[in-house]
Amino acid sequence: MNPNPDDFAPFAPETLSCPHAYWAALRSQAPVKQIAVPGNDRPVFLISRRADVQAVAMDPATFSSMVPSDIWRWGDLGPVLQPHLLSQGWGIVHTIASADPPMHTLYRKIVNGLFLNNKVKALVPDILTAIDGLMQAIPRNAPFDFMTQFAIPLPIAMISDMLGLPHADRPLVQRYTDMFVEMVDPSSPPEKAKAAVGIFAEGQRYLKGFVDRLVAEPDDGILSLVANATDDDGKLLSIEERLSLCYLLMAAGNETTRNGLALCAYYLALRPDLWSALKADREKVPTFVEEALRVGTPAVLNPRLVTQDTEVAGVAIPADAIVFILWGSANRDEASFSNADMIDLDRKAARNHQAFGYGIHSCVGAPLARQELNLSVQAWLDRWESLTFAVPAEDIRHSPLFGFRSFHELPLRVR
Q1: CB under 8 Å, gap of 24 or more: what pairs does 17-25 form?
Q2: Please, are residues 138 and 414 in contact by the beta-carbon 8 Å criterion?
Q3: Which of 40, 99, 168, 304 is disulfide-compatible with 94, CB 3.0–4.6 A?
Q4: Each residue of 142-195: pLDDT tens digit?
């Protein structure tokens, strides 16, 4: 008998850590499900089937990305957190990740050329050098935390170098971006969110120093491009807009990639057959990476604000409601993927997933993330005989987050 969606508490830690049974129940019995969000009276709906998720993502006029901060802490942070932010930093502007057209079109145009395939390809030697340095420091035949020794430092190194931030500042980049999840995710309690806002403002002040210098003395780097970005009339963007763009490039460049790296390592340790198959046939590595992203989905969902009365899959949704489009559920939709819960190294069109979003907000940094993931998995296979958990598999838990698929720690052992 299929479980009933009402048997699950959406924000219970056990559901957040492992939501797949809940999502399956939603897809089969309540594909558009109204839920209660702690501390909020606004109608909130979960959209779980892939076809509906895609339809919502492709209709920004009805489903706005500019979501109020009582649901997703971005933009105007509200009467408690906004004064706290402005006393230490600058306001947050919806840009490439959360603005609607026509402003989204402007912001996207500014950054669109930064992660083209040819530019990412030119980064391969730098990525390989960073991978090599991290792998040399990993102990053989002894437990180590994959998060702190590989998954976190690799994307931080790459995005720091791309942005032209000093090597010595990488711990600062980690500090300023680690708090992103605690700040925005509705499962994060208010006291954590307030502390995170303070660190976010500290990061704004850090980036402001670079922006001011690069306006006075521009160069050909990415930060200079953003620091000197203008609107369609040639007017310099506001400091709030430029800092918001800079921060998103810094944070989005490592948060989801670190979780993608962790998911790849997790599935390889969980299933030795995958490790053996990839050892025997390296051409299957790109398919494995896409399947790990599909089954794991580092960024689980995105919120949308409903701008007018509408319906999804026959369910009426009023104006001013919130819908969460569940990328993670869509990526395991049985109607779209055979053996949807399983990694299949022979799956055709393996990139046909929504781990990088869908529609106008699809991830601009996807080419860089894919390159880091593929090169990392290849390097592990080259240098390690085996990759296993350092603790019983059942002791490894995903972090209890609503919007992200992450690990606080991932204890592994290599031989």
Answers
A1: 17/397, 17/398, 17/399, 17/400, 18/398, 19/300, 19/328, 19/329, 20/332, 20/341, 23/48, 23/326, 23/328, 23/329, 23/332, 24/332
A2: yes
A3: 99
A4: 999 999 999 999 999 999 998 999 999 999 999 988 888 888 888 888 888 899
Q: Using DSSP bridges, classify how beta strands 322-326 and 44-47 pair: parallel, antiparallel or unpaired.
A: parallel
What distance in Å separates the CA atoms of residue 206 and residue 204, rounded to the nearest whole number?
5
Q: How confident is the model at residue 1 (pLDDT cuts 50, 70, 90)?
A: low
* Contact between residue 1 and residue 383 where contact means Cβ atoms under 8 Å apart: no
Reduce the DSSP state of residue 150 to 3 states and report it. Answer: helix
Are 155 and 249 within 8 A, CB to CB? no
Task: For the chain, give every domain's residue range.
Answer: 5-414
Burial grade of 91 (CB within 10 A; 0-12, 13-18, 19 or more):
middle
Residue 78's CB is within 10 A of a number of other CB atoms, namely 13
The string of pLDDT tens digits covering residues 266-280 is 999 999 999 999 999
Partners of 324 in the beta sheet? Answer: 46, 303
Residue 407 near residue 389 (C-beta atoms within 8 A): no
CATH number attached to the domain at 5-414:
1.10.630.10
Q: How far apart are CA 309 and CA 320, in angstroms?
A: 8
Q: Alpha-carbon Rg of the chain, whole angstroms? A: 21
Give the number of other CB atoms < 10 A from CB of residue 409: 14
Q: What pTM, to 2 d.p., does this model score?
A: 0.94
- 200 and 140 in contact (C-beta within 8 Å)? no
CA neighbor of 402 nearest in space, from 61, 15, 82, 27:
15
User: What type of residue is 23?
Assistant: W
CA-wise closest residue to 40 among 2, 94, 78, 13:
78
